[in-house]
Design brief:
Elements (H helix, E strand, L loop, with lengths): L8 E2 H23 L7 H23 L1 E4 L3 E7 L2 E6 L3 E4 L5 E6 L3 E4 L3 E4 L5 E12 L2 H6 L4 H17 L18 H16 L4 E13 L1 H41 L6 H16 L15
Antiparallel strand pairs: 1-5, 2-5, 3-4, 3-6, 7-9, 8-9, 9-10
């Protein structure tokens, strides 16, 4: 069911008209029950009856008045049949027999609870997300689902679980998407997943971002040690690669400038010493050789 805009009458002019009719009805009733010197009982009865009818009509008309606030919609129905939606703010008037349900069109947000799920590699993690949404189609929000707010919360958690099981926590291969290293791509995937699930509820998703991501407590310490080991290996790999490049450059410059002629054995010794100096965690202590090499 799609939203159908419907017109409404301005409420303030209509309210003034109803007040005027109510005043007339009171005057007619007062005139009818007053002294009747000419003994015109029929005319007095007609005046009272007319006043009562006008009073009932004015009271019934007041039921048709309702207020619509900015960024709010009033969904109108007649005996269970959807009539239309009014989005014009202010005091409005429609058929008093219409049922009116107010729907907020404002932007809303909430943070899901911390969910415990298994990521792609099977490791348990804790994940939560901040969801920003608003009602786009008031008719779908009212008639397509029982409670659209509860529907949004439940489907958001379901989509977050499905997304978390599709990616690993950490990146293990070059170019692989992971929950921790590709926040923008993961958020876009979650946003599309939510929009697909909530399209029939008349809800538009504006933003979805992970607000909490961590390993589950029972494996957090082990995973921290693995991350530290990976960081140490990556750092050592870079240090060794840089040291090898510096050694190659040093040998090439010495040979190019003819500073010293080194045989293979001396080159091996020099390479060993340079690698120790460049790759060592602590500063090296130089040893001055006052004699020969051998």
């Amino acid at each position: 069911m799609k939203e159908n805009p419907v017109s409404s009458l301005p409420g303030i002019p209509f309210l003034l008209a109803v007040i005027a009719v109510a005043v007339v009805s009171v005057w007619l009733v007062a005139t009818g029950i007053g002294p009747d010197p000419d003994n015109l009982g029929v005319a007095s009865g007609a005046s009272i009856l007319g006043g009562l009818l006008l009073g009932a009509l004015s009271f019934l008309s007041l039921i048709g008045l309702y207020k619509v606030e900015p960024n709010q919609a009033a969904v109108l129905s007649l005996f269970g049949r959807y009539v239309g939606t009014v989005k014009t703010d202010g005091l409005r008037w429609n058929n008093p027999f219409f049922s009116k349900k107010k729907i907020s069109l404002r932007v809303r947000n909430f943070e899901s609870g911390k969910l415990k799920v298994n990521e792609l590699d099977g490791s348990p993690i804790e994940i939560a997300a901040v969801i920003v949404w608003q009602v786009q189609d008031s008719a779908e929000a009212v008639y397509n689902v029982d409670d659209y707010e509860s529907f949004v919360h439940i489907q958001s958690e379901s989509a977050l679980r499905a997304m978390a099981t599709s990616y690993p926590y950490d990146q293990h291969e070059e170019g692989q998407l992971s929950l921790r290293s590709h926040a923008a791509e993961i958020s876009l995937h979650l946003l599309n997943e939510l929009q697909e699930r909530l399209a029939d509820a008349g809800v538009q998703m504006l933003d979805a971002r992970i607000s909490h991501l961590a390993y589950a407590p029972e494996i957090a310490q082990a995973m921290l040690q693995r991350q530290q080991a990976n960081a140490i290996i990556a750092a050592r790999t870079r240090i060794v690669a840089g040291a090898v490049g510096m050694v190659e450059m040093a040998l090439a410059e010495l040979q190019k400038n003819g500073v010293v002629q080194l045989d293979e054995e001396r080159k091996a010794a020099m390479v060993s010493n340079l690698l120790v100096v460049l790759c060592g965690e602590r500063s090296t202590q130089p040893i001055v050789n006052a004699g020969t090499l051998y």
